[in-house]
Amino acid sequence: GRLLYCGSDIWCHINCALWSNEVFEEVDGALQNVFDALARGSGSRCKHCNAKGATVNCCVRGCQVSLHFPCSLQPETEVTLLEGKRLICRHHAKEQANKNLVPHPPSFEVARCVYVDLGAESKRIKPVAPRDIRIVIG
User: Which residue segments constitute the domains of the chain, with CATH numbers given?
Assistant: First the structure.
């Protein structure tokens, strides 16, 4: 999917950012707390594929189920997608009783202007030495 620039050679997929619990979108399309999600995800393993980098969590307080966004779309994960870019794992889905479900079939295309607000996040970006900069064209 579409990639968002996070600064200093850091990129993330738009839906991975949008569906992360701590990330929220301002009226102008600026995403806040993306670096918090990246930091948390760097140590979080996906329940489906067991790889690190899972930033999408079950929205039930205290639940430890973490997934990559693409893994959450796999039928065998048995998760329920809710409105407001929230996800609920199969263990807690019965409690939700089909309220606020994402319309079926869901569309995850994001055509509007969305970007990572680097103003608030720039303090976390480590500066890159000029000798470490590589420019690739094409």
Answer: 3-132 (3.30.40.10)
